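Recap quiz, item 2
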Amino acid sequence: MFLSISTTHRPATDLGFLLMKHPERMHEVEVGFGKAVVFYPIATDERCEAVLTLDVDPIGLVRGRGEAEGLLDQYVNDRPYAASSFLSVGLNRIFRTAMTGVSRERAELAAAKIPLVVKVCPLPVRGGEELLGTLFAPLGWKVSFERVEGPHGPSRYVSLTLEGEQRVAEALSHLYVLIPVLDDDKHYWSGDDEVEKLLAKAGAWLGTHPSKELIAKRYLKRRRLARMALARLASEDQAELEAPEVRQTREEALEAPVRLNDLRLDAVVEALAATGAKFVVDLGCGEGKLLGRLMRDRRFEKIVGLDASSRALETARDRLKLDMAGGPKRERVTLLHGALTYRDERWAGAEAVSLVEVIEHLDADRLPALEKAVFGVAQPKHVVVTTPNAEYNVLFEKLTAGAFRHPDHRFEWTRAEFAAWAGGVAERCGYAVSYAGVGEAHPEHGAPTQMAVFAR
Amino acid sequence: MTRASDEVLSVPDFSLIVLIGATGSGKSTFAAKHFLKTEIVSSDYARGLVADDENDQASSGDAFDLVRAIAEKRLKNRRLTVIDATNVRSADRKQWVEVARRWHALPVAIVIDPGLDVCIERNKLRPDRQFGPQIPQRMIHEIRRGLGGLQREGFRQIWRLSSVEGVDAARVERRPLWTDRRGEKGPFDIIGDVHGCADELEQLLAELGYRVTWGADRSVHVEAPHGRTVVYVGDLCDRGPRSPDVLRIVMSMVAAGTGMVVQGNHDKKLMRWLDGRDVKIAHGLQETIDQMNAETPEFRRVVKTFVDELRSHYWLDGGRLAVAHAGLKEDMIGRGSPTVRDFALYGESTGEIDEFGLPVRLDWAAKYRGATTVVYGHTPVPEAEWVNNTICIDTGCVFGGKLTALRWPERDLVSVPAARVYYEPIKPLHAVSARSAQSEADDMLDYADVSGRRWIDTALTKRIVVPEENAAAALEIMSRFAIAPQWLIYLPPTMSPVETSPVDGWLERPEEAFAFFKSRAQAEIVCEEKHMGSRALLAVCRDNAVARRRFGVVSDEAGAIWTRTGRAFFPDAATRDAVLEGVRQAADRAALWEELGTDWLLLDAEIMPWSAKASSLIEQQYAQVAASAVSGLCASAEAAARAVARGVDLGGMDGRLSERLVRAQKYSSAWAPYVWPVNGIGDLRIAPFHLLASEGAVHFDKDHLWHMRISERLAEHGGPMMTVTDYRIARTDDDAVLSALAQWWEERTSRGSEGMVVKPRAFIAHGEKGIVQPALKVRGREYLRIIYGPEYDAPEHLSRLKSRGLGAKRALALREFSLGHEALTRFVARAPLRRVHECVFAVLALESEPIDPRL
């Protein structure tokens, strides 16, 4: 990765004093992941340019050094090349003194604003190019950039140019903080003192920055390493590499104006309570949002949640405070890791079962297996099923026509399609079924969510 | 005092024996004398375990919980168990009867009552039992008061030893349960529900090689072929024209030791009628009554006794076979309880009535998981079909179907058709479904079939263990992303790369593969071009009827194409069907169906271009790496050149940056040969390289030349969509040929080929230490750049990459290979889906092992 800082201040070579790096020599520093090098392609009175390049060791990134674990998963990725938190670390190491803003030889100059041009390449910009202006313009930079072309067209990187009158130390601190913010990918910040580091580097300007929330949020974000096993198995399809919570948010954001999820859960709790069931099972319980509501309702004496994702179940376990002091009694709430297409004796005897926004995540040819497992084998007295009403999708402004509300949805049904399936299940398995809409109904397109309540 | 003369306590060898006796009566001594230490569960001992004091009455509750838990585990494992406790009160004993019933063990009571004085004396000798005489006195009083009620409490045997001598002289003898005839090894001919169809029975017996001879007095003699025994599944009478004659034949065979019968529900009802009890006359009983009324009272008496003594089921042939009228669950075989008898006679019903007024039966066979084969009748079916190691052989003879016998151990089915409809069925014998009974039962896989730590016995590598956490990881993928399990009969094994090359500048070279197989006693190897596409498995059926019948799928497609992790290869059905049709036509023209005697094929293939499946990976991952590497290095190299030009000493860094830039540029174009636009199936290329299986055969027994020739024929007849795999064969001792092969590899890979796969000529190759890696991949230099990154071959990087461990990858490859072979072997042998599925599931589970994905 490439970073250049140049000035036309006279004499321009004073830049060497400000950066504490002699323009006629090459400067090299070892950093944990490789080395940082600074040299000057030009150093005249008129113009002086310092270039920082990082030589990241790609093997070391994967394998780690000595006993340490490798930092990155083992697929080829852009980390050795793209401007990221690595560049910040390199900046901080090689320009440590300069970043403090103290200069012995040029104390006045260090406190003064001088004309600076900064280039960074390649810089990933997550969240759109306009973010470059949003972040740098309020700090007094004139922003321009060029999209980097890749072998198959425009890449996700830009070559960024910033121009402005800035104090060198402040310019460095802008870069130190904002490069990782723009990259917004895997950060490998080590400890809890990051808040202090951020304040130390950016305290002077962050407080008045109009996007300070965004900056702080992105800078401090920490992501757990993707679970190796899941990543390996999911590697074929990029969409599935996305963490489930990210996708969840997408659907929620879409439906947010109507707070549909709350309405839906309320409706399901009501429907379950109306059956008089004391033993209820939430199939596809995810992170346990419905379970939490069921737990607060003393009418339900035994509650089981089942999901195929062990990660979702872990979150549910934390959220519901299972096995914790002050949590529910152990006998009352149970979480099971399982799948809906397998018969499962562990929840036999359930009086009522809910399938909330679950069936649409199964391929249509697996629905007979779910039907048999739930309605044919377990045969609870009542089953509550909710699924999106596809007719309503035209009313979601942000949803492109014909698209599903969630990338993992295998289908979304109209009311007639849902009734055809539910009616068939009811007939084959000996249930009566009734339908209801959840959420404010549109006169033509119906309610956003449709619900069926089966009883036998 | 009378001496109980050497009383023999004959107890079933599987029972729950409850000792009853006051403190000091000598129960523990008696138990120790007659039973194994492990068979005795003592309340005193349990008190010691939970409270370090055998007499701590305060811990009795916990101690009894423990006794019960141990007893239940033993009974679950079909082990005789003795409860050594006072069991004075009826309430104490009641729980033991319940425990025995739960595990279908016979509850046996042995009362030990040598008298109060004896008890008091003995307690005096025990320093830990210093309590007054009133305690044993009260106990003995309560025991004696309860004696009369023991039978009512549910004990099936009650033994009372009421003197010291009686206790001393008693002997305990164990006899097998009446149903336990494991010693009878057969061979057997098991015959389905006869229902008075004597004509068909005589024909069937003749067909099976028995000779039936009638005497003038209606006596009958049946001569059995050497050593064979008939086992009737019951329901000898009712509905049909000659129930008394059927009974004559059967009784004569039982008397002669050439026949066995289990009781059917109709037989039991006949017995009750003969016994003069009030029975509802329905379901063809009237016909039998009319026929029996024409017989002598003596005959009716003999029949009554005969039918009354019939057993609920038989456990035969060393435990491998069980016969019961209506079937039997795994945990009931070789056990006895009212529940077992009811189940064996009537099966299990939901309590509901169907539209014909018949009880709705629960499908126990669909859930059956036992190792013992269960043969049964009771429910008429159009064809006898295997489901989970069980088979119903009631083919509705009396309703105009046929009378069927199963030969054991041959497992052949022999039938004779009914001469006519003797009795109109209430519910028509339903037409044969296009799907087999097994696949109907298999609609439902059980969570218990795939969860937890699993062991799978394979023919190639014995037992393979799948850790619990791997199974859990696979469950999500399998249930959310994989295609229907009916199609997913195989997943390919992972493939190890060759050992690292010692040659400078190379990570992999073919010489190591040649040496590997040579050192493992392989005389010949096959080198196959490695196509750079995506791995695909293609199950191709001639039509949807085959798919339904053979694979048991419920949908309308006539084949499936899936990836190495079990997902649908093509997201849209139209492309999938078009590709399948192309392969189907190639097989038609190559006349493969006829040659192999099959109507389905399972092919292992590579589908190109790589970009068809991996375009998002290429664009989102690889192209981004290329763009970032080239742009950053380009800017840095340019700046470095300017610095050097004005005289700054960069210590050679400018040169190094230029070299790095060249590598990044090579990276940018490394995948170019594997990428082309796909606008329709005309742009796809399919290269099959294994014909894994077809009807009746797993083709792992053919060598790779056979597989290559089949592939060539498919390519030849498959039009432009099908393509060949270039290959060479060589002897591992022919150095000239081998070095030419290495040359061939170098040329190919320098022109953009991914590399090659080196295999022993045999599909399953054995070396001195068991089976050998089925294949090793040798990847080209530029291809490896895609995998390891732009600068992998810089000397300082390559030297480190060369130290890589292949052991785990190879162990995994062998296990997955064995599991794949096992899955197909089971599928071809028509094993239940869950038996195939567990192997496939295990491959997916093992793939979640954390192994360097670049290998």
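Chain A touches chain B through 78 residues (CB under 8 Å).
Chain A has two domains: 2-220, 248-455.
End of item.
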